[in-house]
Amino acid sequence: MGKMRSGVFGAALVLAVVAGGCAPDDGADGEATTDSLTVAPPPAPAAAAAPTDAQIAMIVVTANSADSAAGEVAKTKGVNADVKAFGQRMVTDHGAVNKQATDLATKLNVTPEESDISRQMKSDAQAHMSALQGASGSEFDKAYIDHEVTMHQQVLDALDQQLIPNAQNAELKSLLETVRPAIAAHLESAKQIQSKLGQQ
User: In the prediction, which pLDDT does 29 show?
Assistant: First the structure.
Protein backbone atom coordinates (compact mmCIF):
# COMPACT_ATOMS: atom_id res chain seq x y z
CA MET A 1 0.00 0.00 0.00
CA GLY A 2 2.71 2.40 0.94
CA LYS A 3 4.51 1.59 -2.31
CA MET A 4 1.39 2.38 -4.32
CA ARG A 5 0.87 5.71 -2.56
CA SER A 6 4.48 6.75 -3.02
CA GLY A 7 4.32 5.75 -6.68
CA VAL A 8 1.30 7.98 -7.29
CA PHE A 9 2.90 10.84 -5.39
CA GLY A 10 6.15 10.37 -7.32
CA ALA A 11 4.29 10.52 -10.62
CA ALA A 12 2.58 13.74 -9.54
CA LEU A 13 5.94 15.19 -8.54
CA VAL A 14 7.48 14.27 -11.90
CA LEU A 15 4.51 15.89 -13.66
CA ALA A 16 5.06 19.07 -11.68
CA VAL A 17 8.74 19.19 -12.57
CA VAL A 18 8.10 18.49 -16.26
CA ALA A 19 5.30 21.07 -16.41
CA GLY A 20 7.50 23.60 -14.63
CA GLY A 21 10.24 23.02 -17.18
CA CYS A 22 7.80 23.76 -19.99
CA ALA A 23 6.87 27.21 -18.71
CA PRO A 24 7.83 29.71 -21.40
CA ASP A 25 10.56 32.20 -20.58
CA ASP A 26 10.27 34.50 -23.57
CA GLY A 27 9.32 37.74 -21.79
CA ALA A 28 11.67 40.69 -22.27
CA ASP A 29 12.55 40.86 -18.59
CA GLY A 30 13.11 37.13 -18.23
CA GLU A 31 9.73 36.40 -16.61
CA ALA A 32 7.34 33.83 -18.01
CA THR A 33 4.66 35.31 -20.21
CA THR A 34 1.09 34.94 -19.02
CA ASP A 35 -0.58 34.70 -22.42
CA SER A 36 0.51 31.10 -22.99
CA LEU A 37 0.95 28.11 -20.68
CA THR A 38 0.24 28.81 -17.03
CA VAL A 39 1.51 26.13 -14.68
CA ALA A 40 -0.77 25.29 -11.79
CA PRO A 41 0.34 23.09 -8.92
CA PRO A 42 -0.58 19.44 -9.48
CA PRO A 43 -3.74 18.19 -7.78
CA ALA A 44 -3.30 16.10 -4.66
CA PRO A 45 -2.90 12.41 -5.52
CA ALA A 46 -6.20 10.54 -5.46
CA ALA A 47 -4.70 7.82 -3.26
CA ALA A 48 -4.01 10.40 -0.55
CA ALA A 49 -7.74 10.90 0.08
CA ALA A 50 -8.85 9.51 3.43
CA PRO A 51 -10.74 6.22 3.01
CA THR A 52 -14.42 6.17 3.97
CA ASP A 53 -15.85 3.61 6.40
CA ALA A 54 -17.22 1.62 3.45
CA GLN A 55 -13.77 1.59 1.83
CA ILE A 56 -12.11 0.67 5.14
CA ALA A 57 -14.51 -2.27 5.45
CA MET A 58 -13.50 -3.48 1.98
CA ILE A 59 -9.78 -3.07 2.78
CA VAL A 60 -10.21 -5.17 5.93
CA VAL A 61 -12.16 -7.88 4.09
CA THR A 62 -9.66 -7.93 1.20
CA ALA A 63 -6.60 -8.17 3.47
CA ASN A 64 -8.11 -10.93 5.61
CA SER A 65 -9.40 -12.92 2.64
CA ALA A 66 -6.02 -12.77 0.92
CA ASP A 67 -4.13 -13.93 3.99
CA SER A 68 -6.62 -16.73 4.70
CA ALA A 69 -6.26 -17.98 1.12
CA ALA A 70 -2.46 -17.91 1.29
CA GLY A 71 -2.62 -19.72 4.63
CA GLU A 72 -4.68 -22.50 3.06
CA VAL A 73 -1.96 -22.99 0.46
CA ALA A 74 0.78 -22.96 3.14
CA LYS A 75 -1.04 -25.68 5.10
CA THR A 76 -0.78 -28.06 2.17
CA LYS A 77 2.38 -26.97 0.30
CA GLY A 78 4.58 -25.96 3.23
CA VAL A 79 7.30 -28.41 4.25
CA ASN A 80 8.51 -26.70 7.42
CA ALA A 81 6.31 -27.46 10.45
CA ASP A 82 6.40 -23.82 11.60
CA VAL A 83 5.31 -22.61 8.16
CA LYS A 84 2.40 -25.07 8.06
CA ALA A 85 1.32 -24.08 11.59
CA PHE A 86 1.57 -20.38 10.73
CA GLY A 87 -0.59 -20.99 7.63
CA GLN A 88 -3.25 -22.64 9.81
CA ARG A 89 -3.09 -19.74 12.27
CA MET A 90 -3.66 -17.26 9.42
CA VAL A 91 -6.70 -19.21 8.21
CA THR A 92 -8.18 -19.29 11.71
CA ASP A 93 -7.34 -15.75 12.85
CA HIS A 94 -8.01 -13.87 9.62
CA GLY A 95 -11.16 -15.89 8.98
CA ALA A 96 -12.46 -14.82 12.40
CA VAL A 97 -11.65 -11.15 11.77
CA ASN A 98 -13.34 -11.31 8.38
CA LYS A 99 -16.50 -12.65 10.00
CA GLN A 100 -16.42 -9.82 12.57
CA ALA A 101 -15.91 -7.24 9.83
CA THR A 102 -18.70 -8.54 7.59
CA ASP A 103 -21.07 -8.93 10.56
CA LEU A 104 -20.34 -5.34 11.60
CA ALA A 105 -20.83 -4.05 8.06
CA THR A 106 -24.21 -5.83 7.93
CA LYS A 107 -25.23 -4.45 11.34
CA LEU A 108 -24.27 -0.90 10.30
CA ASN A 109 -25.89 -1.34 6.88
CA VAL A 110 -22.56 -0.46 5.21
CA THR A 111 -21.78 -1.99 1.84
CA PRO A 112 -17.99 -2.47 1.54
CA GLU A 113 -16.73 -0.27 -1.30
CA GLU A 114 -13.71 -0.76 -3.56
CA SER A 115 -10.91 1.80 -3.45
CA ASP A 116 -7.48 2.13 -5.03
CA ILE A 117 -6.03 0.55 -1.89
CA SER A 118 -8.30 -2.52 -1.90
CA ARG A 119 -7.86 -2.98 -5.66
CA GLN A 120 -4.06 -2.83 -5.28
CA MET A 121 -4.21 -5.32 -2.40
CA LYS A 122 -6.32 -7.69 -4.49
CA SER A 123 -3.91 -7.44 -7.41
CA ASP A 124 -0.89 -8.03 -5.14
CA ALA A 125 -2.61 -11.03 -3.54
CA GLN A 126 -3.32 -12.60 -6.94
CA ALA A 127 0.30 -12.15 -8.01
CA HIS A 128 1.49 -13.64 -4.71
CA MET A 129 -0.81 -16.65 -5.07
CA SER A 130 0.49 -17.28 -8.58
CA ALA A 131 4.07 -17.18 -7.29
CA LEU A 132 3.22 -19.56 -4.45
CA GLN A 133 1.55 -22.03 -6.81
CA GLY A 134 4.78 -22.18 -8.84
CA ALA A 135 7.03 -22.76 -5.82
CA SER A 136 7.68 -25.92 -3.80
CA GLY A 137 9.73 -27.23 -0.91
CA SER A 138 11.95 -24.80 0.98
CA GLU A 139 11.55 -22.28 -1.85
CA PHE A 140 7.81 -22.20 -1.12
CA ASP A 141 8.37 -21.83 2.64
CA LYS A 142 10.71 -18.88 2.13
CA ALA A 143 8.46 -17.14 -0.43
CA TYR A 144 5.40 -17.56 1.79
CA ILE A 145 7.03 -16.31 5.00
CA ASP A 146 8.86 -13.43 3.30
CA HIS A 147 5.54 -12.23 1.91
CA GLU A 148 3.81 -12.66 5.28
CA VAL A 149 6.41 -10.41 6.93
CA THR A 150 6.01 -7.75 4.24
CA MET A 151 2.23 -7.97 4.12
CA HIS A 152 1.70 -7.82 7.88
CA GLN A 153 4.01 -4.79 8.12
CA GLN A 154 2.00 -3.07 5.37
CA VAL A 155 -1.30 -3.87 7.11
CA LEU A 156 0.06 -2.61 10.43
CA ASP A 157 1.22 0.62 8.78
CA ALA A 158 -2.18 1.03 7.08
CA LEU A 159 -3.99 0.49 10.38
CA ASP A 160 -1.86 3.10 12.13
CA GLN A 161 -1.67 5.69 9.37
CA GLN A 162 -4.96 5.41 7.47
CA LEU A 163 -7.60 3.02 8.76
CA ILE A 164 -7.82 3.71 12.50
CA PRO A 165 -7.35 7.50 12.19
CA ASN A 166 -9.98 7.78 9.43
CA ALA A 167 -12.66 5.37 10.70
CA GLN A 168 -15.71 7.49 11.51
CA ASN A 169 -17.90 4.82 13.09
CA ALA A 170 -16.95 4.08 16.72
CA GLU A 171 -17.61 0.33 16.39
CA LEU A 172 -15.51 0.06 13.24
CA LYS A 173 -12.67 1.99 14.87
CA SER A 174 -12.94 -0.27 17.94
CA LEU A 175 -12.73 -3.40 15.77
CA LEU A 176 -9.61 -2.07 14.04
CA GLU A 177 -8.00 -1.20 17.37
CA THR A 178 -8.90 -4.64 18.73
CA VAL A 179 -7.31 -6.56 15.83
CA ARG A 180 -4.15 -4.44 15.72
CA PRO A 181 -2.30 -6.39 18.47
CA ALA A 182 -3.05 -9.67 16.66
CA ILE A 183 -1.59 -8.28 13.42
CA ALA A 184 1.52 -7.15 15.32
CA ALA A 185 1.82 -10.63 16.90
CA HIS A 186 1.49 -12.26 13.46
CA LEU A 187 4.27 -10.02 12.18
CA GLU A 188 6.59 -11.00 15.04
CA SER A 189 5.83 -14.73 14.56
CA ALA A 190 6.49 -14.46 10.83
CA LYS A 191 9.80 -12.68 11.48
CA GLN A 192 10.88 -15.43 13.89
CA ILE A 193 10.08 -18.13 11.33
CA GLN A 194 11.84 -16.09 8.63
CA SER A 195 14.93 -15.93 10.81
CA LYS A 196 14.88 -19.70 11.44
CA LEU A 197 14.46 -20.45 7.74
CA GLY A 198 17.42 -18.17 6.99
CA GLN A 199 19.62 -20.27 9.28
CA GLN A 200 18.80 -23.56 7.56
Answer: 47
